[in-house]
Amino acid sequence: MRKIKKGDDVIVITGKDKGKRGTVLRVLDLEHILVEGANRVKKHQRPNPMKNTTGGIVDKEMPLHVSNVAIFNPTSKKADRVGVKTLDDGRRVRIFKSNGEVIDV
Question: Whole-prediction pTM value?
Answer without folding.
Answer: 0.84
